[in-house]
Fold these 2 entries.
Entry 1:
Amino acid sequence: MSTPLSFQDIILRLLAYWKEQGCLVQQPYNIQLGAGTMNPATALRVLGPEPWNVVYVEPSIRPDDGRFGENPNRMQMHHQLQVILKPDPGDPQERYLKSLEAIGIDPRQHDIRFVEDNWDSPALGAWGLGWEVWLDGQEITQFTYFQQAGGQTLDPVSVEITYGLDRIALALQGLESVWSIAYGAGIPYSDVLLASEIEHCRYYFEVADVEALKVVYDTYEREARRCLDGQLVFPAHDYNLKCSHLFNVLDTRGAIGVTERANYFRRMRNVARDISVLYMAQRQQRDYPLLHHGLWQGHTADESGRVDFSLAPSFPHPFVLEIGSEELPAADLTAAIAQLRTAVPALLTELRLDYDTVEVQGTPRRLMIFVSRLASRQADRNTVVKGPPANRAFDAAGHPTQAGLGFARSRGVPVTELQVVEEKGGQYVAAVVRESGRAAIEVLAEALPGCIAGLTFGKSMRWNQTNVAYSRPLRWLVALYGAQVVPFTYAGVHSGRTSRGLRPYGAPSITIDDAANYARLMREHSIVTDVETRQATITTAATALARSQGGVYRDDPELLEEVANLVEYPTVLYGRFAERFLDLPAEVLVAVMKKHQRYFPVYAPDSRLLPAFITVRNGDAVHLDTVTAGNEQVLRARFADAEFFYRHDIQQPLAAYVPQLATLTFQARLGSMLDKVHRLEQLTPAVARLLALTAEETAIAQRAAALSKADLATRMVVEMTSLQGIMGGHYARTSGEPEAVALALAEQYNPVSTTRPGLALALADRLDSLLGLFAVGLAPRGSNDPFALRRAALGIIENLVANQRSFDVRAALAEAAPLLPVASDAETMAAVLGFINGRMEGILRERGISAAVVRAVLAEQGHNPYAASQAAAALAEAITAPDWPEVLASYSRCVRITRQLQETLPMQPEALAMPAEQTLWTAYQAAAASQDGTVTRLVAGLRSLVPAITTFFIDVLVMDEDLAVRHNRLALLQRLASLPTGVADLSHLEGF
Amino acid sequence: MSTPLSFQDIILRLLAYWKEQGCLVQQPYNIQLGAGTMNPATALRVLGPEPWNVVYVEPSIRPDDGRFGENPNRMQMHHQLQVILKPDPGDPQERYLKSLEAIGIDPRQHDIRFVEDNWDSPALGAWGLGWEVWLDGQEITQFTYFQQAGGQTLDPVSVEITYGLDRIALALQGLESVWSIAYGAGIPYSDVLLASEIEHCRYYFEVADVEALKVVYDTYEREARRCLDGQLVFPAHDYNLKCSHLFNVLDTRGAIGVTERANYFRRMRNVARDISVLYMAQRQQRDYPLLHHGLWQGHTADESGRVDFSLAPSFPHPFVLEIGSEELPAADLTAAIAQLRTAVPALLTELRLDYDTVEVQGTPRRLMIFVSRLASRQADRNTVVKGPPANRAFDAAGHPTQAGLGFARSRGVPVTELQVVEEKGGQYVAAVVRESGRAAIEVLAEALPGCIAGLTFGKSMRWNQTNVAYSRPLRWLVALYGAQVVPFTYAGVHSGRTSRGLRPYGAPSITIDDAANYARLMREHSIVTDVETRQATITTAATALARSQGGVYRDDPELLEEVANLVEYPTVLYGRFAERFLDLPAEVLVAVMKKHQRYFPVYAPDSRLLPAFITVRNGDAVHLDTVTAGNEQVLRARFADAEFFYRHDIQQPLAAYVPQLATLTFQARLGSMLDKVHRLEQLTPAVARLLALTAEETAIAQRAAALSKADLATRMVVEMTSLQGIMGGHYARTSGEPEAVALALAEQYNPVSTTRPGLALALADRLDSLLGLFAVGLAPRGSNDPFALRRAALGIIENLVANQRSFDVRAALAEAAPLLPVASDAETMAAVLGFINGRMEGILRERGISAAVVRAVLAEQGHNPYAASQAAAALAEAITAPDWPEVLASYSRCVRITRQLQETLPMQPEALAMPAEQTLWTAYQAAAASQDGTVTRLVAGLRSLVPAITTFFIDVLVMDEDLAVRHNRLALLQRLASLPTGVADLSHLEGF
């Protein structure tokens, strides 16, 4: 192996490579930027219709990524190499991969992957879809189809390729830290940049003068505005960049709260938008000088000529459609397969094409539809077409009139074949139109574009002049009916018979001679098209691999689904990390492995973590050691980062973070997170009382409430929000808080609390959020639920149910209301309760309980989720009893006759004269006395009353003429009717 | 010829070239910089002992160079490519020239020159010596030996090479404007950068918010200080750079007065100094990590062994010394030749080496000493050494004592050869010590280093580890005595026999076999070593060339001397420029041609300028057309710039610039230039009255005074200070001022005024400066004359003399005094007058007038320069008359006898009784009546009195016992003695 390139040689080679691809070679910008995207050579040039191809290096400054030179690959300054290709040249990924080869990265020796990563800059009003490119697990490039910039939709779309040069050098030189990289001239990277790195970190984290820089920000924003007033795009952009850097510095100093942050973003975005609009107007005014630039013509598909379908085969054949694309996001792949599994059979039916089976599969680079024994032609079809009334089509003599003749002619049938049909009492002539089936290949050619277009994705993108939207750029189409191409064009791509092989093998062309051979050819090229097979392969191999190392692989279906969808040919590998990282909380390690790297953790038999991980490579086992070493290196850097946060966070006790919550806005009118904490400190004990906690438990709950949000101000949680609560628990322990407090903190966001103080806190937190946000008018609408209030409501319900706790939500809301800084009236509380009931209804219905039963129970117990849940189950059971209709009918008679009464009548038992009256009264008293609020007792009671009620209605005329008698009887029935009050409203039930 | 490189390819090639030379390849800095020097890769890395070799591109921002994209090669942003070589590799110029070849610049096809240009950044506390490199007249590179940075002396010195990439591309692609340059990918430079250029100009010149940015400057300076307090070098440097850019913006907006500017410079320099000191301390603390870097060892001369001088020839031979160096500044070359022409003969004499002739010559790259028939050995020498007194060296018997024996032994002579010598009346023994002459080659080897070290230059530099100082790096030494090398080492260079040829021929090695052949070999290699020959060649060729084009070449000795010293082989060429530029004032065109380009203007026979110039190329006529075209292109850009200034300046009348003078400080206590103008508006009419100008002339002078400094605020004068006054005159005309006002303005700085209003203004201006600056204690001291007050005094004198105007300086100073904002007492006025008299004395003495005469005249007429000048000449003439001693003696008798009298005695003519008295009185009256203040009449009068005086002293006893008689006679003599009052004080004369 030859000596790897130095850092400077990597840069020079890449510049030369992209120059050869027709790019301009520009310089880094002379203003501190967070990313090459902000350089006007990108930020402005991507706007408007003009072509633009450029490459440049951009030392990028991200103050909050500073680690004082202690992290192996995370720094406040890293070097980007930025490429813009506008418009899409049609093969940007291939060009990119060749650029890696140009600097010595052989795809055969590594694992290079395109992992979904969508880019969004709220400060720039910009976003795009694309990938992180992973080299042996290390993110080395951001590859994006830029969709919008400065709030403007981009047309054409630009391909943006952003190399992380430092990490590439690290990988290429096989080192453990960027500071060891050979920069050039025999000098290590550390000698060039380390002193500056450390000092800049100290400036950003410790020294910068917050108040003074805020003033400069305001000044520079005004300068940007002055520039815009003077129609000066570039100077305005410069100032917006300076503002952005100042913001980053302020942010790193911890000087910016959430609301303030949104405010700064809005300000920068507004300036960016105005700059973009002005730039586009100016370019238009100059008649787009680069628009007719010869070298930069976009890639356009040449239209294929008409096709002769007469050669179509005449008996069934297999059909295959392969939609080849750049790497689909894992979730999009899953979604697309599901959609096609429904859509394709429906389509074939609609097309009247018989078939044997439909199989839909896919990998990140291809969606595949295989239809066996597809009919060569559509079935013929007779259609009855209604014509004029019969008496106008034929005269009285039965001869056709002009109208009749005209209709027959227009439908292409002899007049003699017209029939008479009857409709809505009238008689009409009708023609039976016979439609011959067309060749399958012809109808497929027509239908397939619509089939592909019918796919929907969470986020779609455009990439070329056709402006077709798809998950990621669609690059090839294989469509074969038997040996014949089904010819069509979609998104500028012509269908054909050429597929592409695995990327690690150089993505060779694969010619499919016949649809029948598709599966075999894929296998021969090591492509595992079948999702389930890939998943099974991974599970089997991972289990065996873990076991061989004395460890345990745990199923993780969600992660498995994603991982299996990131590869076309999974090969599992086993990596290790340093033991010392096990000192960090296991949740942190697991979160890092799963979230950032999609690694499977490996456990010891005693369930503790082993210092190891399992991951999957796309391709075979060749040079697997290189890939393993690369992944280990990545994880080392990730863990070092976590260690950095952890060490920082435990320098002060958890309680010390509480005051910082004042800068974190919960919601504008509801105050900061600190305000919320203050409310929870009062609400949690009240909830504890409602839950009948002991004094000791209540004190623990209250302490937990006081610390509940402190971890939001720690670096670990700022970096990985998913660890909120969990870190609170850890830091509580390191701060010497009681274990019970730590437990309550740790589980506060869990669906189910395992401790009683934890339950009190979890309920209080969610109740405060629900009532507060409803009170300020932020109840969820439609699919818009930014504060995740549905989850909060579900959390209350499920937690109470799981803990089998009766709990009066109404009472709790009444405690919460006065603590809020805004008024919340009875109506608001009712709305919250209604919202919770809505979730309850969903849960109970999902358990198979009928809507009627659910409604019946919620009408009386909606405020008490656990009780309602129990009651619903019991009621659902009860109504299955054979005598239930009789019981209900009996009860309902009592209700119906008393329903119109406005008020509860007084009851005079001594005035009941008739035996049936007296018997019923006695029976009622016994039934009422037996009630305990459960459905069981209720139903038993009602059942016990049936004979007495029956006798009563036989023997007694309720509506006696004597009003006193009548009223006394009605009063008795009212009491019977109210027996289920507080348990269920039986009037909702069927048969009532 | 192959296609020239694109702009981006030039960059990539140069980076690759310097990488091959062992340089690190770094990136431009991410802060707006005025020059690559400010990038910490230079500004900090040049400090301290560590080696450092780096190359990087630096887009450099100089707001006030902005021309709104209208100039062909001047922009607010240009691209530098910066190279630092530390330490000096020994051949940086050759490496640099090879880099030009690497991008396709063939030295044979162009004129590449190293033209002195010393670099100095007051804001950075940095300076260096070196050159502009000219490519066909175009400055394409700054080549500097960096001597000091951040106020710290650099050791080792760094070689700093700063390419002007845009201009190089312009030249290489043979274009007329940078905006036409092919940038790369088929895109012109204009499509990449023009819009940004124009907009940034508009921002810098028209939009930037001055007050707001001043506040930011203060904030950023404080941030820099905070960083320094925290020991953070790099962040502090960043802020200092930001301050520098802010300053440039403010300056371009015209928001910074002279004093304020100095203040800002001081602030930036102080921060830069503190940064440098801190950086150096930190590097030392880290034990200089790069110090032992293997690849970057400095260039050290290997010491040569001892030399055997026994082979020295034994009869006279020619001797040649050639001191080869990088290009000497023209003035240094002249100075060095002059010094050697004196020093070498003196040295040879001191060395007792006989010779025939000494010739000293030189070119920019070599100083040459040729000695014909130099003796092969020193002459022998006998030295008499004095010993002890004779009576202690020999006893009474004449035998030597121990003392005598010891002395003889110590001097190496037999005691018998001791002699007795007499000195100051004592007798001593003495030894005659005989010293044999050593070989010439040996004594030369010893003496030549001292001879070279004895050269002094205006500014010397160090460049390598020897820390020897010389004008520019000394690179080779030829020292031959006949065919033999005179071996010595100086500045790390060993003497030898290898010289180097012309740069355009690739500077081939020239081996000198024998000193006798030196001149022939130089001729053969086309090197014209003789300064006078080069000058004559240029004059002859230029005259002929101009004539052939119908024009006239005018002698300009100063320019000729410089131009002849810039080349080793002059070839004259004739270039043209566009007619339209002739619309600009001729002075502007001439100033641009001479000052910036060292071109000779060409005149039509009617003395108007022709649109043409003559310049000199170093080398022969091969590809002279390319060189001519290049020079024409340069001049076009220069003139376009002048046109830009001119067009801007005439957009408002000259008077409109007056208020801007408020920001231009004249002197702190004397106020702004506007204050000075206000004083001149009052003083000039007063001076006019003293000059007896008419009312009309006075009005003109006053108007001129009001406008006198306005042009200092115009862009043309800001750019070319030498045009002050001249531009005032032009702009007065374009503003519609009377021609007389324009004339007065135009000539205000001239030594001689041609108009009377101009004279009044010129005198008023200088008097105000003299009196004001003396009053605030800024009279010149020693050689320190920052306000050029010597020139001001001379200007007053010469102007009055040339205009033959009597003028009472005392009266004028009395008018000036009350106008000043500071007190100026009689003593101050006397000091000014004394200062002017000092200059007068110098002028008159230079005319050959004796000190006595000058003193005599100045004693009486020092306040009136013209009159004094006339009187001195006349008196000098008068004292040459044969009878003058008699006349003076006669007069002096009258003076001497009355000198002690304290007061003038009353005269009673009627009381004169004796005929001699009466005769004298009568004669006196006649003489006194004939006086007109001239020396001629005075001398005639004194001569006429001689007989009467003689008779008087014979006949009359002055000191009569009768006091009344005595006093009357003394009174008569007092009147005689006072006859010269106001003309001359004859007591200063010889023979008085």
Entry 2:
Amino acid sequence: MGPLLRTVELFYDVLSPYSWLGFEVLCRYQNIWNINLQLRPSLIGGIMKDSGNKPPGLLPRKGQYMANDIKLLRHHFQIPIQFPKDFFSVIIEKGSLSAMRFLTAVSLEHPEMLEKASRELWMRVWSRVKFSSEIPIQYHAAAEKAGMSAEQAQGLLEKISTPKVKNQLKETTEAACRYGAFGLPITVAHVDGQTHMIFGSDRMELLAFLLGKLKIQH
Amino acid sequence: MGPLLRTVELFYDVLSPYSWLGFEVLCRYQNIWNINLQLRPSLIGGIMKDSGNKPPGLLPRKGQYMANDIKLLRHHFQIPIQFPKDFFSVIIEKGSLSAMRFLTAVSLEHPEMLEKASRELWMRVWSRVKFSSEIPIQYHAAAEKAGMSAEQAQGLLEKISTPKVKNQLKETTEAACRYGAFGLPITVAHVDGQTHMIFGSDRMELLAFLLGKLKIQH
């Protein structure tokens, strides 16, 4: 028998900077680790509410730490991430409901474009590309940059408010909660009949260790 | 000129399991990385109060995650850590004031024994050795296991309540807060005239990256 293709699910939200880091590491390593990577657009606000947790940036000292941390991680991970100047208006007030519905629509209609479309949205929230308040323009630009035609992008925008898309995002967010999420990203590795949930982007060596087929003794 | 000996400070509390992980990694790598490792016994309760943060274990879903996380990290880091069965009574109710005053006394009187004495206390809180409610017996046993004579151990116990020890622990805890701590461990690396504060035990590759003398562009 050849080696099994292990499934690894990444639950993420584009409001979460550490989700971006985890996303890029998994995209880079999916072939090296021989994993079947499943991208799961989720709603961080729903997870915070369901778990009773609060966004780390709301505690002043954590917010200050995150700003420095991201500055260092940008260089270490070679990802063009930077803290938005208007953090509170972009991240806290605006929220990500429409963005994650847009990515959910991509996952349903054009799953092969989900990776690129997700990255384009992160580039707009957490990098040099300015996040426009004109939502349709925003998503059009991201979709086209990800390789879609203008018609495909328009079709997706029309699907954002459909029950199918709304329910799918709700179901994915609930699945993350059932895995024990209290924030994002979470990575769920299905290895040798066991399921391991890993929170955050700083346990990637632990994931590599788990994928190394070592049986954990309980 | 030869390479400079970089100073790295670890602020820790034996109530914090991730402090133990960070402590062991730094102890293992101090010679490999050629760092001057300074151990700084601190009071996590004081840091939580000063920063407005709450212990992660108090949020049920985080507490559940931590229990699984520690089970996995035990194997990955090869550290005999395990979640205490009586977590709330050992960790939350009992607190660590006397334990950290004891280690502060060790740091003042027998600094060369601080590493071993700290490890012995972690073994008692977070490993197989039962944490005794008889505080003096507890510290006597840890001190002797760390290599002290019965007289040295007795001398330390008598110093726990002195103003010198109390003030030193307070000052160290305040120093951690000035570095921006909202929990423990924090690692403070002094590299090329820059100071970097790293929270937690899961940024050790980032620390290695910083020690690699790469200048961070701001």
